[in-house]
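Reopening this one. Same input as before:
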Amino acid sequence: MTATRDTPDEALDKLVTGNKRFVHGTPRYGHDVTQAATTAGGQEPHSLVLGCIDSRVPLEAIFDQSFGAICVARSGAHVLDRSLIGSVGFAVAELGVSLVLVVGHKRCGAVHATVKALRAGVVSEGEVGYLVDQLAPAVREFGLDDPDAGEKAVRSHVIRTVDRLHKVDSLAGPIEAGRLRVVGAIYDLDSGAVEFLT
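Same output, byte for byte:
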């Protein structure tokens, strides 16, 4: 018998309340190997969380979610490429997630490195250059002279990523039918709190 899937709002509520438990120091879930064993036979995650590779942002922990509850996809500053978009599509189509949450975070190294590179007029090569190119529009939105360009660009990049995911063909149908929501958020490294953007 298949369990009833969470609605997009129910999935978002689980992440909101999980983050509150995390912030208040009362997590429900830990990293216990016995929990891993209980989900080894299959998975029914409610959400896919797309975040940065930053080691200070452990996505399962900050949302206090147990094994099998969320899929996690990460890249520098959650920059999208074909592989990540395909992973999101897979999680929606094959695993039935009802929420995609894009999580940026304060003091993002990739965003601040982009600000620095653009201010210096340095052209990054190869794969790092790809990250800079993808982040540059969010940085330029506020002007390179703005002392808060990095932090403003973090928020802008989250919004841009959410907008881009809304335009992915394979996600459009589930979004339109109300089976999927794509939401943005900003994680505060100091407090542990997540601000959910609407």
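So the earlier flakiness isn't reproducible anymore. For the record, Residues 22 and 98 are 22 Å apart (CA to CA).
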